[in-house]
Amino acid sequence: MQDVIVIGGGVIGLTSAWWLLEAGYGVTLLEREAVLGSAASFRNGGQLSYRYVSPLADQGVPLKAVQWMFQADGPLHFRPEADLRQWRWLAGFLANCTAASNRKTTAKLLELGELSRRAMGELEMLIPLESFSWRDAGKMVVYRSKKVFDKAVARPDSEDARQVLSPAECVAREPALAAALPQLAGGIFNQGEAVADCHAFCQALADRLREHPRFRGVVNGEARRFVVDSGKVIGLDTSAGMLTADSYVLAAGIQSRDLAASADIYLPLYPLKGYSLTAPIRASDCALEISVTDFERKVLYARIGDSLRVAAMVDMVGEDLSLDAKRIAGLTRQVRATMPNAADYDRISPWAGLRPATPDSAPIIGATRYSNLWLNVGQGPLGFTFACGSAKLLADCVSGKAPPFSMDGLTLR
What we know:
This protein has helices at 11-22, 61-69, 84-95, 99-124, 146-154, 167-173, 198-211, 256-261, 325-338, 383-399, and strands spanning 3-7, 26-31, 47-48, 76-78, 139-143, 163-165, 186-190, 194-195, 215-220, 223-229, 232-238, 241-243, 247-250, 270-280, 291-294, 299-304, 307-316, 349-357, 364-367, 373-377. It is α/β, with parallel strands linked by helices. β15 and β16 (299-304) form a beta hairpin. Residues 3-396 form the FAD dependent oxidoreductase domain.
């Protein structure tokens, strides 16, 4: 039996470990944090948006980005860095801001999303749904601009069962939106989209990992560098000592960038900082039931258990995890105005995480120049959504098994 070390104990690393175990490998998991799933997987938006996978890069986005940067509560904040990686990533992003690139990447992400939906269904047979607050809530994307709404309606859609809704129908379907009714132009609803607590999912999956006969355990330590020789990785230097295995899987979020560089591999990743708010739901609140995305404001709303989770914003500020008080205040104002009665906003708990994104929004899965080093990185804001599908593809690659669809666009470019 071959042994694999998976580097990273977030949702990508944990799902990678599970599917490798199921493929017959012995697996050791390396995680630098004391608690699994406590970095980018901790309080993300919670939406499992298998069909709403549009890449960030698209025609017209650069102009919108400039406009957003001058809005006090806009969805984008940019701070220039003296770091070539930021500018190299931006150049790649701008090169992908075309309609053709967007269509190509969207088609690939829809395939990955459908694979992820089916793969999550496999885990739902093994992990109690209530353990991670999973709900088949459906997803509604609401629009404030009639022009933007009409364009979205006219766009060919992957889901024939989508429902195009008037503003009144949006509120009838989701009463928590009542206060926003005068500002709405319409909405699009899709069945089959779910919400769940990503951190709780990580904990539940970790419990199943520990029960697996081929699981070697969790090593708590920070990976420092790969030791390579003759086209192979021969060791992993960590704060817990030197670790060795037959193969290595890099799934450490934005930290993957520096680790790959230690083996002279450039990963086109940049940490897109996002914020979330979590507010408890009281019995008297008009609680959200459907997963909602406010399209123009780029704000996501989801009910997770007895809490409202709101996620938004892209801050390009490097690996800065500090909570920007102005950004939190601005998001809170928007949430109060859109859904004033949905939760107890006097008890908001803010959070920020770094989402490792590629310039075209497609993750990087599979082989490297080293015969025993594999990648599962770059899922960006859709890490939870794509985790299970990415893990299945990774296990296929490591096992030498043909994937269910072409990997074109999902490998190291």
